[in-house]
Amino acid sequence: MATHNELGTKGEEIALDFLQKNNYKILEKNWRFKKAEVDIIALKKGILAVVEVKTRSSDYFGNPQDFVNQKKIQLLVEAINEYVISKNLDVEVRFDIIAILKNKDKFDIQHLKDAFLYF
Q1: Which of 46, 84, 90, 95 could be 116's S-S partner, Cβ–Cβ 3.0 to 4.6 Å?
Q2: What is the CATH number of domain 3-118?
Q3: pTM to 2 decimals?
Q4: Tens digits of per-residue pLDDT, 81-103?
Q5: Is residue 56 packed enough to be buried (19+ CB in 10 Å), middle (13-18) or exposed (0-12)?
Q6: C-alpha–C-alpha distance, residues 66 and 99, integer Å
Q7: Where are the domains of the chain?
Q8: Are 27 and 107 in contact (CB under 8 A)?
Q9: Residue 9 is inside which H or E element, if any?
């Protein structure tokens, strides 16, 4: 596996652990609909958190969250619309980004709630 794929997989594991420690119930991992892949779908206090995980080894080219573009947002919104309808859910939906930056042997985690409001 390529190094960037390994880093991405590690980032998703860190994000899952972080969410579980913060009382989120993980409903789905890597859920797919058409061209979209939703990294994590989690539930906490009646809010469905749609979580995009971005992991980087450096901030040289920008922060991890800077790599979520309009196309990705559009795909995620379409996918979650399908998810909510297909599961017949009556929940508030929130789009989050968990940005993870590798800093030597540790990882800095930033949980950006309602992240797409700023795009």
Answers
A1: 95
A2: 3.40.1350.10
A3: 0.89
A4: 999 999 999 999 999 999 999 88
A5: buried
A6: 9
A7: 3-118
A8: no
A9: helix 3-21
